[in-house]
């Protein structure tokens, strides 16, 4: 790897880039939803539905096979008078570049064989804010 730099990887889905103004303030939010499900491991074969039924009786009547979870992130920013505020949701990741060389002949001369770059998202997500004239 030749270089690694912090890089914002924008989300590609609709509704993740918002623009407001001129001036004033903007407030943006994103909500993600998911499900936590029953998970079990063991050394013998067993039925997860039987395990759930037994847990419901012995542990609590409120246990469930799955639970929906929703998390959100709201961001607010004041927009400079006469400017437009932009907010883009995405990942705070990295941009990397690389070069690959090969050695040829007895003199071991190096020749550039290939180069490339990649943007790598991380699980650190949030809003990036910037302003424009229009």
Q: How would the blueprint of this fold be written?
A:
Layout: E1 3-10, E2 17-20, E3 24-37, H1 48-58, E4 66-79, E5 84-104, E6 109-120, E7 125-132
Antiparallel strand pairs: 1-5, 2-5, 3-4, 5-6, 5-7
Number of domains: 1
Strand content: over 45%
> How can the largest sheet be summarized?
5 strands, antiparallel
Gyration radius, rounded: 25 Å
Class derived from helix and strand content: mainly beta
Helix content: under 10%
Q: Measure the end-to-end span.
A: 39 Å
Backbone shape: elongated
Number of helices: 1
- Give the integer mean of the pLDDT values: 77
Q: Which residues sit in consecutive blocks of at least 5 with pLDDT less than 50?
A: 56-65
Number of separate strands? 7
Q: What is the H/E string? A: EEEHEEEE
Provide a concise account of the structure shown.
The chain is mainly beta and 134 residues long. It is built from one helix and seven strands. It has one helix at 48-58; strands at residues 3-10, 17-20, 24-37, 66-79, 84-104, 109-120, 125-132.
């Amino acid at each position: 790897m030749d270089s690694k730099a912090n890089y914002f990887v924008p989300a590609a889905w609709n509704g993740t880039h918002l623009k407001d103004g001129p001036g004033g303030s903007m407030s943006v939010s994103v909500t993600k939803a998911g499900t936590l499900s029953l998970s079990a491991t063991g050394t013998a074969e067993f039925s997860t539905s039987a395990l759930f039924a037994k847990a419901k009786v012995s542990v609590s009547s409120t246990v469930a096979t799955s639970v929906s979870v929703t998390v959100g992130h709201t961001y607010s920013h004041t927009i400079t008078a006469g400017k437009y505020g932009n907010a883009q949701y995405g990942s705070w990741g990295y941009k990397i570049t690389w070069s690959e060389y090969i050695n040829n002949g007895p003199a071991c001369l190096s020749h550039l064989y290939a180069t490339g770059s990649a943007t790598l998202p991380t699980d650190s997500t949030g809003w990036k804010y910037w302003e424009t004239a229009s």
